[in-house]
Design a protein that fits this description.
The protein is an all-alpha fold and 312 residues long. The protein has eleven helices and no strands. It folds into two domains: 134 residues, no CATH class; 174 residues, no CATH class.
Length: 312
């Protein structure tokens, strides 16, 4: 499929924001976050910027962005509608947590708001992942790795920004458990993503037979082509990425979101170099932009079977 930059920006940026909110909320709910006041408001505000920028970018993919609110009415059957509702509801505990942090309240109210913020963030990420997993027409998006990867990428990218804030403010006094957990998460996410690519590559190529469900009758072919010139379907659904470019971009993505953060965390901890934290966070974000572009560019929609001239 043709990658939509607005959707890529949304899933990467809002994913990082929700991941940051989730980890911050969990740390506050558990009473293990080492800062208070502005130490809470700054990462909370940064997450707000990431989430809001992503949500605003997502409306640009709509034909009429001004009617985006109508998508919220189909929550019974649409994961997109559920995502919109969950994303808006999550703002409520975020505002409550910001208020408690602003007035210096560190009691039960802040902990409850943190727990609700984490739940809202996880629910939104779940809905986002299921938007793509629910599409039966794209087999590569229905593999077992897609859902955990959405959670891992959100927690990794958001966690690296939270670690950056802690590394630059608390410094060596902060616990080693958090950056080490992020290091492990980066490696595990890279391994699972490589496995996802292998599974996607092993999927059978779409044909008119399996697209129509008539493959058991023999070879199925159209009497004539569905279109005589370029159309919306050929531009959007039958987009083809050359394999040599895909392989190169895969290596770049894994290096940026997996190896670079892991190496950055390891060196930062060994040499007490906190300045490496933002570099690791930026590298992961860049790698996820590449990964998400490939997520769409390498996807093969079933309708592409009717445009054999577009198959790689």
């Amino acid at each position: 499929m043709k990658p939509a930059l607005s959707v890529i920006f949304f899933t990467v940026m809002s994913g990082a924001g929700y991941g940051l909110w989730c980890l911050l909320g969990l740390a506050l709910a558990a009473g293990i976050y080492p800062l208070s006041g502005m130490g809470v408001l700054v990462p909370l505000g940064f997450g707000f910027v990431l989430v809001s920028a992503g949500l605003l970018a997502s409306t640009m993919h709509l034909g009429r962005p001004g009617r985006a609110w109508r998508a919220l009415s189909q929550w019974r059957s649409s994961w997109l509608s559920r995502e919109g509702i969950a994303s808006l509801v999550t703002y409520l505990p975020m505002l409550a947590m910001a208020w408690f942090a602003f007035i210096g309240h560190a009691g039960t109210g802040l902990r409850v708001a943190g727990a609700l913020l984490a739940l809202g963030a996880l629910a939104t990420i779940l809905c986002t992942a299921n938007i793509y997993r629910s599409l039966k027409t794209i087999a590569a998006w229905r593999t077992r790795q897609v859902l955990p990867l959405y959670f891992m990428f959100a927690l990794l990218s958001g966690g690296l920004w939270l670690w950056t804030w802690l590394a630059l403010t608390v410094g060596a006094a902060t616990s080693l458990a958090f950056p080490l957990a992020l290091l492990g998460l980066a490696i595990i996410a890279a391994v699972i993503k490589v496995d996802h690519w292998k599974c996607a590559d092993a999927l059978p190529v779409n044909t008119a037979g399996n697209a129509t469900g008539l493959a058991m009758l023999g070879r199925v072919r159209a009497f004539e082509g569905p279109v005589t010139e370029e159309s919306y379907l050929t531009r959007e659904m039958a987009f083809v990425l050359a394999r040599k470019h895909g392989a190169r971009l895969r290596r770049i993505a894994v290096t940026l979101f997996g190896l670079a953060p892991a190496l950055g965390i390891a060196v930062a901890l060994a040499a007490d170099a906190a300045w490496l934290a933002p570099i690791a966070a930026l590298a992961a974000l860049a790698g996820l932009f590449v990964e998400r572009w490939l997520f769409f560019a390498e996807a093969r929609h079933a309708v592409a079977a009717f445009f054999p001239q577009t198959q790689a």
